[in-house]
């Protein structure tokens, strides 16, 4: 990912003209038909599975304001820790890298605006998952810093947070910010986690306002050309299915490890460790993952699992064993065409029998369809016709409102926005009262 300086990003991108939009539309439609004819002969990244009833890239009309880290007291520490020494590039790696990637993509986006007055949406950057793991902030500090940051944002106050976007890249979702339910429960939350009910009373995810994003698959697997490992031909795969992960004391995972002991030539499921000789290296992990026709994706600490997304790049059919899972971009992707979801309460010989009953031809067809949509898991620049970035922008487009309001926002005959004390918006001074 190229991180260009800020100034050029804005000026360099030509506006999306009507001609561009029509061009993009024609491209998508013609690709759709072409791929039906030619199937595998086109690059695997075109959104051929797009339902043409939904909106296309050309029809986006979005203005997103990205808060500067220096603009608001406290924001800097949500990105780099209390001492400012957490490295953003470090936070880019691993399954939680989306918190950095999405920020950088928005900084370079043609939909970025430098003017708050005209913005439809506001992006609040934070790398808190990484910062917390690296000891840059503890839970208490994260909570207090978020509250401090929000109280300095008049635009947040104006809409009660409805037009503000936050990324929470891990299974904890918005719970990373302890008092999220008080302060950002109306905001748009981007998270791979659509469920967080196992250890909490409430899920931080709301189907109507939040957006499920794909997990961050290792860049070494998603790039063109020399990926870390190449997929194996179906006939060369040693196993019917595999599960390569830590047991984490989870019932379904332990059941898979036991099942593998009973059927060692069908199912590969060693109990992996985080450290020591049983930990797989990066390449080793993908070498194992590609060696089965089906990659089993049971839930871990939470419902979403990166393995689901990784399956598409080693070209095994993912079998979801996580009942509460929520998947991204359901408006354009028909998951029944590219994956299997099996009840997590029915892990046993019957699952293996069922998977064995599926012919190689059917498996190959699912894999081919999976190759056509896996571009949606790649955090590529928005210039690519199909990417996670495009998917997220389309979802955000649906959240755009013509108007911004909250229970504490009022308007007059002449368009003036005022607060309960009839103070005009331009004179709202931080710190602002929050719920
Ligand atoms: C989060 O911070 C706010 C403001 O300092 C405080 O009122 C609230 O109790 C904190 N939440 C938790 C869970 O500590
Ligand atoms: C959001 O938080 C406010 C203040 O705590 C509360 O009154 C409201 O019910 C919450 N809304 C949702 C949708 O949870
Ligand atoms: C709108 O009307 C209010 C009340 O009469 C006035 O105080 C305010 O300055 C007006 N705003 C504009 C933008 O004219």
UniProtKB/TrEMBL annotation:
Keywords, alphabetical: Glycosyltransferase, Golgi apparatus, Signal-anchor, Transferase, Transmembrane
Coiled-coil portions: none
Keyword Signal: no
Places the protein is found: Golgi apparatus membrane
Entry superkingdom: Eukaryota
InterPro entries: Exostosin (IPR004263), Exostosin_GT47 (IPR040911)
GO molecular-function terms, A-Z: glycosyltransferase activity
Domain Exostosin GT47: 62-347
GO cellular component, one term: Golgi membrane
Major location (coarse): Golgi
Membrane topology of the entry: Single-pass type II membrane protein
Protein family per UniProt: Belongs to the glycosyltransferase 47 family.
PANTHER family, per the entry: EXOSTOSIN HEPARAN SULFATE GLYCOSYLTRANSFERASE -RELATED, EXOSTOSIN-LIKE 2
Descriptive protein name: Exostosin domain-containing protein
Naturally occurring in which organism (per UniProt): Cephalotus follicularis (Albany pitcher plant)
